[in-house]
Specification:
The protein contains two helices and nine strands, in the order E-E-H-E-H-E-E-E-E-E-E. By secondary structure, the chain is mainly beta.
């Protein structure tokens, strides 16, 4: 929508009505001489505070463009960006560890009592050696085999009638990809204030 300069009147800030500022308050801003609007809630994540302490961690829900505009290829906050003095937690720049593809668990009781320890895996291949032992013996009742049992071990090939022990339950030659054990997650940017 074009603005007619003849319809614009100016006032001093002191002449404007007083109203409380909320997260939904609209702030006018300019990009390349063009006016835009945004809410306070949208602007706040873009403004880092100078009151953060060294090693403090922030989690940002931002776009890939935001990351490239504010961090260099090593993960350091650009000196002319919003996060100068911060770094992406990628194991470089004194961040200590690489949280790429990982999430965080709160410090506490065993086994979560060692800071920066790695717990869990993103994927796990199921092999014959890591399938737990299972007792799949099914008691049988009936006049033909009273007191007997049939053993079922996740069959891949059936035995002749009358023999109900199924074997060869894990295929070590499978070309299937490792099973993902990750819970549903959303990618976020974790950054740390450098000392």
């Amino acid at each position: 929508m074009a603005i007619d300069p003849n319809q614009i009147t100016t006032v001093n800030a002191e002449e404007l009505p007083v109203a409380p500022i909320t997260a939904e308050s609209i702030i006018v801003h300019s990009i390349g001489g063009v006016l835009y609007r945004g809410t306070v809630a949208e602007i706040l994540p873009l403004v880092p505070s100078v009151n953060y302490q060294p090693f403090e961690v922030k989690q940002l829900n931002v776009s890939n463009l935001y990351v490239t505009q504010n961090f260099d290829e090593d993960g350091l906050g650009k000196t002319d960006g919003l996060w100068n003095g911060w770094a992406i937690i990628n194991g470089n720049n004194g961040t200590g560890f690489n949280c790429s593809g990982a999430t965080f668990i709160g410090f506490g009781d065993i086994p979560y009592d060692t800071m920066r320890q790695q717990i869990g895996e993103n994927t796990k291949a199921i092999t014959k050696n890591n399938v737990p032992k299972m007792d799949l013996t099914v008691p049988v009742s009936g006049s033909d085999n009273a007191g007997g049992s049939h053993v079922y071990v996740m069959a891949t090939n059936l035995q002749p009638e009358g023999n109900h022990t199924y074997v060869n339950s894990v295929n070590p030659l499978s070309t299937e990809a490792p099973l993902s054990i990750m819970q549903k997650s959303f990618v976020q940017l974790f950054i740390m204030k450098l000392p």
